[in-house]
Amino acid sequence: MKLRSLALGLVLAASSFVASAAAFTVVLNPTTPNHLTASFGDTPVLGSFTDVFTFTPGLAPGSSASAYFLNFSLTGQGHFDPNLQILFTAADLNGTPFSIINSVPFAQGGVYVPDISGPLVLTVSGTSNGGSYSGVINVTMAPVPEPATYGMLAGGLALLGVAARRKRRS
Question: Measured in Å, how far apart are the chain's first and last C-alpha atoms?
Fold first, then answer.
């Protein structure tokens, strides 16, 4: 019986060292025509963590996105509190890695992706001492041609056809 309790205790202790993973779905909100934005963040469990944020709706090819996040480890009096610190080990937006700076009293990361499409997936990994982090993502959607643009294209092609036909007759 003691051996069984000891084995169960060891399994529970070992499982506490496994990295925590959390998944979030975040809706991108329109701010101006062709621009979307959203806030994201988490208060991860103590120790290693990996957070995955999926943003909706998906984007058309040719869109661009920028994202930024940070962690302040300051008390209300403006003093550094190591219990609030998060050290980021990696972050990427659809596979494009963030530039990360881990410093005291804050850590931050940012990225700009000039040509992105499909669903946006942001993955943030690090080690938490009990703090939280937050960030923002801004998206510029690829412009969608207006119906008048297609009308002008059809008119131009018709004029080219007329010109080619006239040239052939002469």
Answer: 104
Q: What is the DSSP string of the chain?
A: -HHHHHHHHHHHHHHTTSPEEEEEEEE-EEEETTEEEEEEEE-PPSEEEEEEEEEEEEEEEEEEEEEEEEEE-B-TTS-B-GGG-EEEEEEEETTEEPEEEE-SSEEEEEEEEEEEEEEEEEEEEEEESS--EEEEEEEEPPPPPPHHHHHHHHHHHHHHHHHHHHHHH-
User: Residue 95: what are its φ and ψ, rounded to 5°?
Assistant: 90, -10
25-59 residue pLDDT tens: 999 999 998 999 999 999 998 999 999 999 999 89
Question: Which tens digits make up the pLDDT trace of 99-127?
Answer: 999 998 989 999 999 999 889 999 999 99
Single-letter residue type at 168: R
Does the reported pTM lie above 0.85? Answer: no
Six token digits for residue 35: 């621009």
* Cis, peptide link before residue 105, omega less than 30° from 0: yes
Preceding peptide of 147 cis, ω within 30°: no
115: its two tokens = 């040509």
